[in-house]
Design brief:
The protein is an alpha+beta fold. It is built from three helices and four strands, in the order βαββααβ.
């Protein structure tokens, strides 16, 4: 299993229609085959500069690669992510077997 996460801050002002529209567009990524346990999250602490997070799981590396290379994901990155995200941090996890 791979858990793909990204914490980010948008260029849009908080509570605006533009912010809402971006988050709705991000939710569409959950429709890509292989995406499981998709969550769109709002940061609640002030421990970092990020305001939102996305989290999703994939059964394996092949499912994650399919998502990463999917045309809908590529279009979202080019048309929404790059122009609208101010900064982000991406972290991908696999379970520790200890």
């Amino acid at each position: 299993m791979i858990r793909h996460t990204v914490a980010f801050r948008l260029k849009h002002e908080s509570g605006t229609a533009a912010e809402h529209d971006f988050l709705l567009a991000a939710r569409e990524l959950s429709k890509i085959e292989g995406v499981r346990k998709f969550e769109c999250l709002r940061q609640t602490s002030r421990k970092n500069q990020f305001t939102f997070g996305l989290s999703m799981e994939f059964a394996d590396a092949a499912a994650y690669a399919f998502y990463s290379n999917h045309p809908d994901h590529a279009a979202f990155v080019q048309n929404r992510w790059i122009p609208e995200v101010a900064e982000f941090m991406e972290i991908d996890y696999e379970p520790c077997h200890v």
